Structures are given as structure tokens and as C-alpha cells.
TrEMBL record:
InterPro entries: Kinase-like_dom_sf, Leu-rich_rpt, LRR_dom_sf, LRR_N_plant-typ, PRK1-6/SRF4-like, Prot_kinase_dom. One of its GO terms (molecular function) is protein kinase activity. Residues 1-27 form the signal peptide. This is Pollen receptor-like kinase 3. It comes from the Eukaryota. It comes from Nicotiana attenuata. Its main location: membrane. PROSITE patterns: PROTEIN_KINASE_DOM. Residues 339-614 form the Protein kinase domain. Keywords: Leucine-rich repeat, Membrane, Repeat, Signal, Transmembrane, Transmembrane helix. Coiled coil: none annotated.
Length: 614
């Protein structure tokens, strides 16, 4: 995606107003970030007495337990041996701009390694003595160039040692002992390295010569390692017939690999073509599912910037002003925007979406709404403030807006991990790999909780959400879903609602141009079926020529009693949970019943989902 640096020319100032990315004059307080981090942890009794929102974590008289400060800035979290467990909220840690040391050693954290790579300025990472599992992606450390100390010992990590560790030019200490790591040892040639421990793993092959200075102790407990350090000579390639046989074997393997690469190439090509079609269909995504944006896309952004009018930054006294309605991320104005960079994220039914990164590191998303001319400024202000006051863990609230008769801008926080749509269908990295059965059930529960709240808060609306689809569900670093683009129905021109809101894809809307709270139920059913099958719903596209008709597929499977065939093979391996998966598929089918009167209502749908325990 192309980044655009805002020049100081007046025309680009106007553009900035278009983007309207509100950078807070003051970044979120360290106390708030730490309290948010603690909220997702369990067994926090040791922290509860001192970790109080509104107090200074660096106050020498009332210092927070486990917090290290330098010049009144949080520099380290030393939480080793506190018996902590639960989810590690990396998003909150990102807001601690001075954080350099993170020590979570000797606790009870489990699951895949969290997205610590988002903490680019970190110098020391200690997570040894936990219960983390799974492979660490090869490029995990590529953006953590400041790391000096990496301690991952005494977990259950598997797979290869990440190659990106070799790129850490300041690395001093590396401890990976007592895991289940396999494969060869990468060439860790940093002259800075003074301590290394790779013992008690399943590593194989010859120990790199550059590591010979460390002796044998760091490599013990790896039966398939060889080298002078261990007194185990590496076997040379056999000669004669064995050598000839090996050569033939490797030729065959090479041919197989080539054929596989060719197959993967064509499969990937089809995949990219598929997502290019999705983009042409104007999916209203907060995070693109396509390949990186081209310069052409950034130019269109520049053009739209130049076409915007001049406005001021904060008060609501002028039609060109930016109005902050939620100060949790601070107050911001045009001077901050002029220092920001911008990217185009997507273009959909409601309008275009942009990302702006402010000078203090805060990232924002600005949605430029095209067809919201239904209300005057006072009424629009009332509706947006109503959304900004909502508080629910599964909702993303607006932070600010800009009102002009021709167009409106709505600003919210940028969620780095992206949308459920992207992670299910566009990503094949670690984030997609994390979409196992427990994670998918967690997402369904979170979406259901958010919908339950919206249908209570906006019970008088014809359709409380109105635009529920996987591109409007963002995931935090802990895979907690956040609903976006909700409760816009009262703002949109009646003539444009059909093109703008996904609720109008429900059968009653298609046939009779009528929507109701049950239209949201239909959309919820699509989400459930999409998550469980792993298929891209054709319902998201106006021509429905791509993807899978998950509604018809589910209805047929229910009638023929073969619902188990619908389950995504990636989660079908969780044999002890197949019954829960099938129950959810039946719920998805009930939610997408074409007969409006026979379709279950939201209250019943939520009740059935809540009965399925995590």
C-alpha cells in the first residue's frame, strides 16, 4: 500500500481535512494502557492494589508493582513469576511508547506466541518458563531490530529456529533451550552474541562453525546435532551405490518439489485474481484483502485530497470543523494531520477508507461517507455522539467526525490485525493459522455479544446493525472481534441504503425492499456459516459470481443430514468439538431461513449460541 506524505501546500491541507485523521495532542496515558493490558489477564491479585487508572505508574511514592520507569515514562514491565495467565494484549503494550523491556517469564501463559513483533523498539523480551506452543514464523523478529536479549526457554515451541534472529545485529543473549525446536541451526554470526543456549530440543545437522566459541553445553540434549563441540563427527555423504541411490532419490524429490511449486503458483494466481474481483465488487472493507496497493491507488487519494475544502480542527462552530466525540485516544487537529502519512485501505458501499499514522505513532482510520445526506448537522452530531458513548468490548466506537453537506468523515482507531474477511480468506500467515476451533468459537461468541448489545441499545431501529459482514468485523491481537459500521441506517438516504447496507441482501429486502431486526439475524447466520466452512460467501458480491452460496449449501446439508461435510478441514481435526460445530451450523441455517416469519429472532439466536460453551 502506498504511503502519502502530506506536503505543506494549501491544497494538500484541504486533503488532510478529507482524511480528517485525528491525532491526539496527548497520547493515551500509560496508566490507561496498562489497565487495559491487565483487564485480559487472570490471577492479577498481585497487581490489583497498585494498578489504578488515574494514578501515575511512575510515582516513586506509589509505584505500580512490576513497572520500571525512566524520567516518568514506563520503560519496563517486570512481571516474571506472578502466576499470570490469560490473554496478552499487545495492542495496549504498543501504546507504551517508552517500553523497552518486557518480562513475562515464569507465568502460565499458553497458546501461540503473541504478536510481540508489533513492539519494534523492544530491547529485551523474556517469556521463558510459560506454556507457549506452536511454530514461531521465520520473519517474526525481522522488525525488532533493537532486540538485545531474547529468552524463550522452557516452553513448547516447535518448528525451526526463526531465521530472522540472525538479522538482530545487537543480539547479546539468546536462550531457546528446553523446547521442541527442530531443523538446522541458522548462522548466528553476530559478533555481539555473548550467550546462547539451544540445549534440549530436537535440532539436527552440523553446528555452525561461528558458534564453536560457546563450547558444547549450549547444544547438549539434541541427539541429531553433530560437530566438534559435541565430539560427534558429521557423517560424510556415502560413496558408491549409496551415493548413486541418494542422487537418484534427491532428483526425484527435486522433481516433486518443482511440480508442487508450479501447482502452488497457479493456485496463488487464482487466489490473487479472486481477490482482485472482490475489490472490483467494492467490498466495504476496513482492511483490504488484495495484494499491496499500487501507485495508481495513492494518486486517486491525492486527487480526492485536493478536491476537499478547507476546515478547522476542533470546535463544532463551523461546517468545516473536525469534531472530536470520544477523547479516549486524545484530542487532535489539523497541525497533527499535516505531519501524518496516509494509505488507501479500501472502497465500498458506504465510501472510501483511509489509514493515517500520526507523529506520535497513533494510527487512525477515516471513512469518507458518500451517501449520508439525510440529516442536518445537529441531528448527525446527535447520532454520532450516541455511537461514541457506547461501551462494549466487541464494538469499535467513533472518535471524531467532519460534517459537510456534500460528504461526511467518521474517524476511528486503526486495528492492525485486520478484518475477519482478510484473515479467513486473504491471509495465509500466522494470523490465519491461529484461526483454530477455539478461536473461531471465541469470535462467534464475541460477535453474538456485540449484536445482543446493539439490539438492546437500538431496539427501536428498523435494523440495529444493518451492515454486519466479515469485512466489518475487526480482530484485536487476542482475536477479540470488534464490530464496525453499525447503526448507520438512520443516517443513510433511503435511495442508497440498498447499495450501502448488507442487510438489504436478506431475502425480504431483495423481494420486498423491507428490512427488520431479522435482517440482522440473516447477516449473523452468514457470518456463522462463513467461519465454520471457511468459504467466501457469494452473498457479499453484487453479481454473486464468485465465492460459495453458503446459505443454499447449508440448507441442503441440513435437509440431507450431512452438515458435518460443511466443516472447514482446518478445524475438523478437533474431533471432540465436532458436535458443537454441527450445532452452530444448524444455528447458522436457522438464521438464514429465507422465510422471514420462520426465521428465528436475534434473542433466540443469541440464546442458542450462548449455550455452546467455549
Amino acid at each position: 500500500m502506498a504511503a502519502v506524505l502530506f506536503p505543506h501546500l494549501l491544497s494538500l491541507v484541504f486533503f488532510l481535512l478529507f482524511l480528517s485523521h485525528p491525532p491526539p495532542c496527548f497520547s493515551i496515558g500509560d496508566d490507561e494502557a496498562l489497565v487495559e493490558f491487565k483487564e485480559l489477564l487472570t490471577n492479577t491479585s498481585a497487581l490489583d492494589s497498585s494498578w489504578k487508572k488515574g494514578t501515575n505508574p511512575c510515582d516513586n511514592n506509589k509505584k505500580w508493582v512490576g513497572v520500571q520507569c525512566e524520567k516518568n515514562v514506563v520503560q519496563g514491565l517486570i512481571l516474571g513469576g506472578f502466576g499470570l495467565s490469560g490473554d496478552i494484549d499487545v495492542d495496549s503494550l504498543v501504546r507504551l511508547q517508552g517500553l523497552r523491556v518486557l518480562n513475562l517469564a515464569n507465568n502460565s501463559f499458553s497458546g501461540f506466541i503473541p504478536e510481540f513483533f508489533m513492539l519494534g523498539a523492544l530491547k529485551s523480551l523474556f517469556i521463558d518458563g510459560n506454556q507457549f506452543t506452536g511454530e514461531i514464523p521465520g520473519n517474526f523478529f525481522s522488525k525488532m531490530s533493537s532486540l538485545r536479549k531474547v529468552w524463550l526457554s522452557r516452553n513448547k515451541f516447535s518448528g525451526k529456529i526463526p531465521d530472522s534472529l540472525a538479522s538482530l545485529k545487537y543480539l547479546l543473549e539468546l536462550r531457546l533451550d528446553n523446547n521442541e525446536l527442530s531443523g538446522a541451526i541458522p548462522s548466528l554470526s553476530q559478533g555481539t552474541l555473548i550467550s546462547i543456549n539451544l540445549s534440549n530440543n530436537k535440532l539436527q545437522g552440523e553446528i555452525p562453525q561461528v558458534l564453536s566459541r560457546f563450547g558444547s553445553d549450549p547444544f547438549q540434549g539434541n541427539p541429531e546435532l553433530c560437530g566438534q563441540q559435541l565430539g560427534r563427527e558429521c557423517k560424510a555423504a556415502a560413496s558408491g551405490e549409496k551415493s548413486e541411490g541418494s542422487s537418484i532419490k534427491w532428483i526425484i524429490i527435486g522433481l516433486v518439489v518443482v511440480l508442487l511449486l508450479v501447482a502452488i503458483f497457479f493456485k496463488t494466481k487464482r487466489r490473487e485474481d479472486h481477490f482482485e474481483k472482490l475489490e472490483k465488487e467494492n467490498l466495504d472493507e476496513s482492511v483490504s484483502v488484495n495484494i499491496p496497493r499500487t501507485n495508481k491507488r495513492s494518486m486517486s487519494l491525492c486527487n480526492s485530497m485536493r478536491s476537499s475544502r478547507r476546515g478547522r480542527s476542533r470546535s463544532g462552530s463551523d461546517m468545516g470543523d473536525l469534531v472530536v466525540v470520544n477523547e479516549e485516544r486524545g484530542i487532535f487537529g489539523l497541525p497533527d494531520l499535516m505531519k501524518a502519512s496516509a494509505e488507501v485501505l479500501g472502497n465500498g458501499g458506504l465510501g472510501s477508507a483511509y489509514k493515517a499514522v500520526l507523529g506520535n505513532g497513533l494510527s487512525l482510520v477515516v471513512k469518507r461517507l458518500r451517501e449520508i445526506n439525510k440529516l442536518n448537522k445537529e441531528t448527525f452530531d446527535t447520532e454520532i455522539r450516541k455511537l461514541a458513548k457506547l461501551r462494549h468490548r466487541n464494538l469499535l466506537q467513533p472518535l471524531a467526525y467532519h460534517y459537510r453537506k456534500e460528504e461526511k468523515l467518521v474517524v476511528s482507531e486503526y486495528i492492525p490485525k485486520g478484518s475477519l474477511l482478510y484473515l479467513l480468506h486473504g491471509d495465509r500467515g500466522i494470523a490465519h493459522a491461529q484461526l483454530n476451533w477455539p478461536t473461531r468459537l471465541k469470535i462467534i461468541h464475541g460477535v453474538a455479544n456485540g449484536m445482543k448489545f446493539l439490539h438492546s441499545e437500538f431496539a427501536s431501529y428498523d435494523v440495529p446493525h444493518g451492515n454486519l459482514k466479515s469485512s466489518n468485523i475487526l480482530l484485536t491481537s487476542n482475536n477479540e472481534p470488534l464490530l464496525t459500521d453499525y447503526a448507520f441506517y438512520p443516517l443513510i438516504n433511503n435511495s442508497q441504503a440498498v447499495q450501502s447496507l448488507f442487510a438489504y441482501k436478506s431475502p425480504e429486502a431483495i423481494l420486498n425492499q423491507q428490512i427488520s431486526p431479522k435482517s440482522d439475524v440473516y447477516c449473523l447466520g452468514i457470518i456463522i456459516l462463513e467461519i465454520l466452512t471457511g468459504k467466501f460467501p457469494s452473498q457479499y458480491l453484487s453479481n454473486q459470481k464468485c465465492g460459495t452460496d453458503v446459505v443454499q449449501w447449508a440448507q441442503s446439508a441440513v435437509e440431507e443430514k450431512r452438515v458435518s461435510e460443511l466443516i472447514d478441514p482446518q478445524i475438523a481435526t478437533a474431533k471432540d468439538s465436532l458436535e458443537k460445530m454441527e450445532t452452530l451450523l444448524y444455528i447458522g441455517a436457522a438464521c438464514t431461513e429465507s422465510d422471514h416469519d420462520k426465521r428465528i429472532d436475534m434473542k433466540e439466536a443469541i440464546r442458542r449460541i450462548e449455550e455452546i460453551e467455549s
